Structures are given as C-alpha cells and as structure tokens.
Amino acid sequence: MTMDPTATSTEQATRHVVGQVVNSIAARDWMSLAACVAPDIVYWRPGTHDRVDGASNYVAEWQRFVDQTSSLHYRPHSVIVQDDTAVIEA
Questions:
Q1: How big, in percent rounded to 5, are the helix, strand and coil portions of the chain?
Q2: Could you give the CA distance from residue 37 to residue 13 in angstroms, rounded to a whole number?
C-alpha cells in the first residue's frame, strides 16, 4: 500500500492497520486478525444491511467466509481512509 505524504498521522496509522488486517486475512492468521481490530469494531457485510459487531464476531465472520470459499485470494482494489475509519474494496 502506498503512503500518501499529505495524510495525517492518524490516517497513516489507519492505513498501516488496514495493511495488517489484509495480510492476516490473506494468511488466514485469525489470532493476528483479532489483534489488529478494535474490540468494538463494526463491520458492514457488503451488499447487505447486515452488521457484525465486535472483534470476535468479525474474526468468526472471516473464518466462516474463507472456509466457504477455500480458493479465496484476498486482494484489495482500493482503500479509502478518513481519520481512523477505512473502507476496503476487494
């Protein structure tokens, strides 16, 4: 991921964490994924109105998804960061 020289320190830290999340999912390293996200994370399931609350539920959601799509190769297309919030399109 390329760093934006105009990004604030908060945005740079957010991008770093996003990179760690992406790497954890790609490696199927669920302990690392849990360590990367806030305990009170809110994840909106793409294409639905479903919401996943909390780190343990977020990790379980990814485990379930990866188990159902064993040939998954997680590659982000774009990352949008504003302050401490990120949206990843993959």
A1: 45, 20, 40
A2: 12
> How many CB atoms are located within 10 Å of the residue 59 CB?
22
User: Both tokens of residue 66?
Assistant: 């990866």
N- to C-terminal Cα distance for the chain? 13
Instruction: Say whether pLDDT at 77 is over 60.
Output: yes
Coil/strand/helix, residue 40: coil
User: In angstroms, rounded to a whole number, what is the distance separating the alpha carbons of residues 15 and 63?
Assistant: 23
Separation CA 30–CA 69 (nearest Å) = 16
- pTM assigned to the model: 0.78
pLDDT per residue as tens digits for the range 24-61: 988 999 999 999 999 999 988 778 889 999 999 999 99
